Q: What sequence folds into this?
């Protein structure tokens, strides 16, 4: 593992533009269950079509609202972990670093990362179902969706199954992936598209790809370095060694 971390820090020393592409695994050590893990307890009997589709929401708005309310509560109760913090710190040590995440939990921003591209939206924001009006300051603990000023129900600003990703965010993510010279792929199974195409776009454009995941994924095949481990352990080691090499550490 030490050698792999050294190889990664070497890649960092020449990198001008870094993209860190993350998935549910990066939040795991904060105690955030993945979507599939999250369907535990009283939610175990519902399938994703019921809880995370526009049709599911239209069929039973209070049920879907309460599911997201439960997830929001989980997120409020946890803190960013050492992996999120290391990514935020790395941004101060390289010329340019962008975070592109599939997570909707907002933990990268809470760790200090700036301008995070949220490909699948955020559970902290809302817009209305009919006209996509933005809504602010939604009260906690409501049992059903509040109404927008236009009368439509509010919904979480997450990308549900069957919906398109936010166009501007996706365009920016594609562009950054094409332009970067180093991409970290952290804690994603790499199977949900179009997000999962980003590492291939980076690789095809000549970037090096470093993957951090306890398990190999389809992306492992194109990784220049595969670090088999937990992001909350591996990322801080990379940052510490990089600081030593570059002399940024006192
Ligand atoms: N550190 C790094 N990776 C980890 C860790 C960890 N501590 N723990 C688990 N992982 C890895 C798992 O091995 C797995 O490969 O994180 C990955 C999580 O995979 P998924 O749960 O499928 O999450 P993700 O790839 O982000 O899913 C993509 O699918 O559920 C939808 O829209 C949702 O954004 C989500 C998308």
A:
């Amino acid at each position: 593992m030490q050698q792999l971390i050294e190889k990664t820090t070497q890649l960092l020393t020449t990198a001008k533009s870094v993209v860190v592409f993350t998935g549910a695994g990066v939040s795991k050590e904060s105690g955030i269950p993945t979507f599939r893990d999250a369907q535990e307890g009283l939610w175990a009997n519902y399938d994703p079509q019921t809880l995370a589709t526009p049709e599911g929401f239209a069929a039973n708005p209070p049920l879907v609202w309460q599911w997201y309310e439960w997830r929001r509560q989980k997120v409020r109760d946890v803190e960013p972990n050492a992996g999120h913090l290391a990514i935020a710190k790395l941004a101060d040590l390289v010329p340019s670093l962008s975070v592109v995440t599939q997570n909707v939990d907002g933990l990268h921003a809470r760790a200090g990362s700036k301008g995070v591209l949220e490909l699948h939206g955020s559970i902290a924001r809302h817009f209305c179902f009919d006209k996509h009006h933005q809504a602010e300051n939604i009260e906690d603990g409501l049992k059903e969706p509040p109404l927008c000023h236009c009368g439509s129900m509010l919904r979480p600003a997450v990308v549900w199954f069957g919906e398109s990703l936010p166009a501007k965010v996706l365009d920016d993510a594609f562009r950054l992936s094409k332009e970067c010279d180093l991409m970290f792929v952290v804690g994603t199974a790499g199977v949900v598209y179009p997000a999962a195409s980003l590492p291939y776009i980076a690789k095809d454009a000549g970037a090096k790809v470093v993957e951090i995941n306890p398990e190999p994924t389809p992306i492992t095949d194109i990784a220049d370095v595969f670090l088999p481990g937990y992001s909350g352990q591996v990322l801080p080691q990379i940052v510490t060694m990089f600081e030593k090499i570059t002399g940024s550490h006192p």
